């Protein structure tokens, strides 16, 4: 039996679609025009057989060469048609078997590091008679069902989304619309970006991407001199970096969109604040406490990246500033801090379901914050476990939820004891805890990132990750991690 589209709507590209395939790193020849003239009707068994055959061949390539996108035999001997065919088949395999880490990582590397771009020839395309309103996202992968094509697009590196969005209207509406982020989360697709604002003369935000071991430099944010020179706070909401601070014309929130790679002004908070506790949960960014015009706050609010709106939350039980926040077990927790005249040992837990705060006495003992001049607690949540840095001992700690107790772990490499904690970043990134910058002594800074994996069975669980890209002294003003 012959069926147009084959298995679950398998179909080939429209004869009138033309693409130009370019790869600056993995293809020796110049990218020239490519006509895809596949048979619009595909044998059901033949399509399945092709996918199985491709799976076997790519598995062999992966085992023998280590990396599909670095297989010189495939790339150096390929014609343009074979390049696109290879791209499509790898996409299909990884979409069908995305749970296999090897294939998933190959697709992520292939779509993210090869600098591959598909340039659609709009003059030759009649991809949908109704102007694309009924087009399906996956239809632009030949021999791939719509759902599989959708899964493939979801795995494209964030830096290449705008390029892929130029292929056709359907892709553009999906990739640049609100459903893209939701679908990535539902598929548990994540790409870690570590945003760092260090001590550099150009006041540049830089991004370290562990999966690619590279650095990106964000375009300059057009804030004024006061915003640039005053203390700022940063947080993640969805696919956006939020930077909050005081400008000449009042308190402002700048938003950096990682897809469009540009800055814009976000709506203002209901209550301007600094030195607050904050945390990210999907599209939401939570904020609580802080100080405003000398007053210590107990108010809280939440930013929704999907709607671009702020919503007030119930007040905490205690006013607090210089506190920290995290998300654990789906709840927003605010830890430590101080009032105008007292260092606080308690924490507070906000449950979004009940919309109530619960006080947790003794969560941050006074021994961890002996001075009012120290930094807020350095905390991070990894696999629903709460970790912190004891700045007096220069050691990691882990929190035992049931007993409300902290336990010391290993010493942190190259950092000093009895420091204030300022200038040090501590974040959960992937399956590891990152310690970013920090100091060895009063005036000596560490321009490195080190990582700790709690599940490792090795005695030395710390590893060197990367040098902080200069110019920076190792003093970290702001740091935020996006895992989307």
Automatic annotation (TrEMBL):
Gene3D superfamilies on file: Kelch-type beta propeller
Positions of region (Disordered): 1-66
Keyword Kinase among record annotations: no
GO CC field: nucleus
Xref: SUPFAM superfamilies: F-box domain (SSF81383), Kelch motif (SSF117281)
Alphabetized UniProt keyword annotations: Repeat
PANTHER family associated with the record: F-BOX DOMAIN-CONTAINING PROTEIN (PTHR46122:SF1), GALACTOSE OXIDASE/KELCH REPEAT PROTEIN-RELATED (PTHR46122)
Protein name per the record: F-box domain-containing protein
Lineage: Eukaryota, Viridiplantae, Streptophyta, Embryophyta, Marchantiophyta
